[in-house]
Amino acid sequence: MSWETTIGLEIHVQLSTKTKLFSGASTQFGSNPNTQVDYVDLGLPGVLPVPNREAFNKAIMFGLATNSTINSISFFDRKNYFYPDLPKGYQITQMNKPIVENGEIAIYVDNKEKIINITRAHLEEDAGKSVHDLFDGKTGVDLNRAGTPLLEIVSEPEISSPEEAVAYFKAIHQLVTYLDICDGNMSQGSMRCDVNVSIKKPEDTELGTRAELKNINSFRFIDRAIRHEVNRQIKLLEKGEKIVQETRLYDSDKNETRSMRSKEAANDYRYFPEPDLLPIVIDQNEINEIKNNMPELPKAKVSRYIDVFNLDEADAKIIATSKEMSKMFETAAAESMNPQLAARWLIGEVNALLNKDNVLLSESKLEINNFSALIIRINDETISGKIAKTVLEKIWETGDTVDSIIESEGLVQIKDSGLIEEICNKVVSDNPDQVAAYRAGKDKLFGFFVGQVMKESKGKANPKNVNEVLKKLLS
Amino acid sequence: MDKETVSTIAHLSRLSLENEKGDKLISDLEEILEFVDQLNDANTENVDPLSSPLEMTARLRNDDLNSKDRKSKFLSNAPDSNEDYFLVPRVVE
């Protein structure tokens, strides 16, 4: 039986403001517990929250970059629940009138574009952190994170595979780091996501019952958690059982999802308009000013790459979507004076390595200058393309510089025509039968000779020179 | 309004409820709901939802640091703490 998967993502992006959403306490990561807590974050009696303008500016930037509607009037609501790391007993969030609505973002799977619609992006405060395993029989609470501004970005359920979900998460990651509204540091929890997954038969018009997978914070886990959850749902439905709408936790150690909350404690957040805060009004002048101060967006970069560097649109899009990759491309293009070559290597080899390890360029060991050096060495024919691939793989593993790898591995391309002739002569005299056959008209054998020479030279002979010499010898 | 609803609300609000008070609460809450229900008689067509009764809008503040470390003061107010953390009964997921 075939099933269709429907996925929607809720991504929490920690905005990189200096201070919290409603207080002047620092949002710095990694400080000693409870040293960055203000009266407001503790919810002490008599305090009032005051919204941080910069958090709104950053949310608006995101809205502008995703062709969203920016609501000139937005307001906050109270979401009530009890948990020790939520001192007030409620979270201030935007339920009814978020700052950003109805946007879109492009994702790429197998170099094909798909548009994913964004339902909304709203501002809310983060909770503190509970530490369960440090203190005997007790839970420790650190409120440094309480009140840190989050932008929760909610997608439409238009994602139809784990690959697309990862691509969407990457696209959001790339955009928010592009805009510099989030540091993008996944291991510090700067971006976390909840995934809604359901399956249905192709002929069904309504979506199936969904399960929500909580708090996934790496690209690889998104992929694995969705695959696992889809299989679980298929098994249940094919046995004639039903899917329960519930929140499930993905356990990366066991690679399984399990139910988090019993039905008895079903969530009832009793939302109501936040009485401590007035409606927030943003006028068009403010929006225009933010627009004027935004960094060059991927879209503008794409047209520049097409015009200035003569790239294909598809290639330009792949490079421009990532801030890191476009920086790498622009540096290598300028230093090697060969933008086409730089683009080809990024889209081909570098992308393949990124996909293989499911990491971001910023997480890899490939540095901008080292990539530039690699392109320069290919361009000036110090190394062949084939060798360059080996070098790139070495860089990927070790982070060593191109020149040190070329030197220590003895990979410099042989352009010495005397040496090349010597090797070619040897190959020709070692293979008299093939030579005779070639001369008798079996042209295809030419590739055989080239291959033998490359083998003899351990891939270091310059193919152009080899071709010339062999042609002469075999004619 | 029934007993179960009342006990759910009590649970959500972390209020303990003495059993014999349940019936009295049911009738009290029903009266309150009935009273508030009058609002449904008002014609709200073409009226925007009201998010605040004050005809004012929020003032935003600049992203400036203006708070300091008050850890020891705050922790000393808590029923239980160590030198770094607030301590609460273990919360098991």
From TrEMBL, chain A:
<dbReference type="GO" id="GO:0050567">
    <property type="term" value="F:glutaminyl-tRNA synthase (glutamine-hydrolyzing) activity"/>
</dbReference>
<dbReference type="GO" id="GO:0006412">
    <property type="term" value="P:translation"/>
</dbReference>
<dbReference type="Pfam" id="PF02637">
    <property type="entry name" value="GatB_Yqey"/>
</dbReference>
<dbReference type="GO" id="GO:0070681">
    <property type="term" value="P:glutaminyl-tRNAGln biosynthesis via transamidation"/>
</dbReference>
<dbReference type="InterPro" id="IPR042114">
    <property type="entry name" value="GatB_C_1"/>
</dbReference>
<dbReference type="InterPro" id="IPR023168">
    <property type="entry name" value="GatB_Yqey_C_2"/>
</dbReference>
<feature type="domain" description="Asn/Gln amidotransferase">
    <location>
        <begin position="327"/>
        <end position="474"/>
    </location>
</feature>
<comment type="similarity">
    <text>Belongs to the GatB/GatE family. GatB subfamily.</text>
</comment>
<protein>
    <recommendedName>
        <fullName>Aspartyl/glutamyl-tRNA(Asn/Gln) amidotransferase subunit B</fullName>
        <ecNumber>6.3.5.-</ecNumber>
    </recommendedName>
</protein>
<dbReference type="InterPro" id="IPR006075">
    <property type="entry name" value="Asn/Gln-tRNA_Trfase_suB/E_cat"/>
</dbReference>
<dbReference type="InterPro" id="IPR014746">
    <property type="entry name" value="Gln_synth/guanido_kin_cat_dom"/>
</dbReference>
<dbReference type="GO" id="GO:0050566">
    <property type="term" value="F:asparaginyl-tRNA synthase (glutamine-hydrolyzing) activity"/>
</dbReference>
<dbReference type="Pfam" id="PF02934">
    <property type="entry name" value="GatB_N"/>
</dbReference>
<dbReference type="InterPro" id="IPR017959">
    <property type="entry name" value="Asn/Gln-tRNA_amidoTrfase_suB/E"/>
</dbReference>
<dbReference type="InterPro" id="IPR004413">
    <property type="entry name" value="GatB"/>
</dbReference>
<keyword id="KW-0648">Protein biosynthesis</keyword>
<comment type="subunit">
    <text>Heterotrimer of A, B and C subunits.</text>
</comment>
<dbReference type="InterPro" id="IPR018027">
    <property type="entry name" value="Asn/Gln_amidotransferase"/>
</dbReference>
<keyword id="KW-0808">Transferase</keyword>
<comment type="function">
    <text>Allows the formation of correctly charged Asn-tRNA(Asn) or Gln-tRNA(Gln) through the transamidation of misacylated Asp-tRNA(Asn) or Glu-tRNA(Gln) in organisms which lack either or both of asparaginyl-tRNA or glutaminyl-tRNA synthetases. The reaction takes place in the presence of glutamine and ATP through an activated phospho-Asp-tRNA(Asn) or phospho-Glu-tRNA(Gln).</text>
</comment>
<dbReference type="GO" id="GO:0016740">
    <property type="term" value="F:transferase activity"/>
</dbReference>
<keyword id="KW-0067">ATP-binding</keyword>
From TrEMBL, chain B:
<dbReference type="GO" id="GO:0006412">
    <property type="term" value="P:translation"/>
</dbReference>
<dbReference type="InterPro" id="IPR036113">
    <property type="entry name" value="Asp/Glu-ADT_sf_sub_c"/>
</dbReference>
<keyword id="KW-0436">Ligase</keyword>
<protein>
    <recommendedName>
        <fullName>Aspartyl/glutamyl-tRNA(Asn/Gln) amidotransferase subunit C</fullName>
        <ecNumber>6.3.5.-</ecNumber>
    </recommendedName>
</protein>
<dbReference type="Pfam" id="PF02686">
    <property type="entry name" value="GatC"/>
</dbReference>
<comment type="subunit">
    <text>Heterotrimer of A, B and C subunits.</text>
</comment>
<dbReference type="GO" id="GO:0050567">
    <property type="term" value="F:glutaminyl-tRNA synthase (glutamine-hydrolyzing) activity"/>
</dbReference>
<keyword id="KW-0808">Transferase</keyword>
<comment type="similarity">
    <text>Belongs to the GatC family.</text>
</comment>
<dbReference type="InterPro" id="IPR003837">
    <property type="entry name" value="GatC"/>
</dbReference>
<comment type="function">
    <text>Allows the formation of correctly charged Asn-tRNA(Asn) or Gln-tRNA(Gln) through the transamidation of misacylated Asp-tRNA(Asn) or Glu-tRNA(Gln) in organisms which lack either or both of asparaginyl-tRNA or glutaminyl-tRNA synthetases. The reaction takes place in the presence of glutamine and ATP through an activated phospho-Asp-tRNA(Asn) or phospho-Glu-tRNA(Gln).</text>
</comment>
<dbReference type="GO" id="GO:0006450">
    <property type="term" value="P:regulation of translational fidelity"/>
</dbReference>
<dbReference type="GO" id="GO:0050566">
    <property type="term" value="F:asparaginyl-tRNA synthase (glutamine-hydrolyzing) activity"/>
</dbReference>
<dbReference type="GO" id="GO:0005524">
    <property type="term" value="F:ATP binding"/>
</dbReference>
<dbReference type="GO" id="GO:0016740">
    <property type="term" value="F:transferase activity"/>
</dbReference>
<dbReference type="GO" id="GO:0070681">
    <property type="term" value="P:glutaminyl-tRNAGln biosynthesis via transamidation"/>
</dbReference>
<keyword id="KW-0547">Nucleotide-binding</keyword>
<keyword id="KW-0067">ATP-binding</keyword>
<keyword id="KW-0648">Protein biosynthesis</keyword>
